[in-house]
Amino acid sequence: MHVFLLWIGRLAGTVGVLLTAGAVLLRLTGSYHLGSFQVLTVLQAGTTAMVMACLGYIASSAERQPASR
């Protein structure tokens, strides 16, 4: 299970960084919309994906730890 959580973390982190970087670049060019979405919505989706990645890594780490005594 920890391998699955690790891959979820990696995938969500990659998607989150790409979404966040894309939103920042769009905003720096003066765009407020990406298709029918506001750039702020894309930024929030990227942040959410990175938080999901962190939680996946934490859950993976917690599952690999041996039980204490």
Overall geometry: rod-shaped
Most strands sheet: 2 strands, antiparallel
Low-confidence parts: none
Sheet with the most strands: spatial strand order: 1-2
The proportion of residues in beta strands is 5-15%
- The chain-level mean pLDDT equals 92
Supply the key terms:
mainly alpha, single chain, two-stranded antiparallel sheet, 2 strands, 69 residues
Write up what this structure looks like.
The protein is mainly alpha-helical and about 70 residues long. The chain has a domain at about 1-10 and about 25-60. It is about 75% helix and about 5% strand. The chain is built from two helices and two strands, in the order αββα. α1 (about 1-30) runs antiparallel to α2 (about 40-65). The protein is rod-shaped and about 55 Å long. It starts with a helix and ends in a 5-residue tail after the last helix. The mean pLDDT is about 90.
Write a short abstract of this structure:
This protein is mainly alpha-helical.
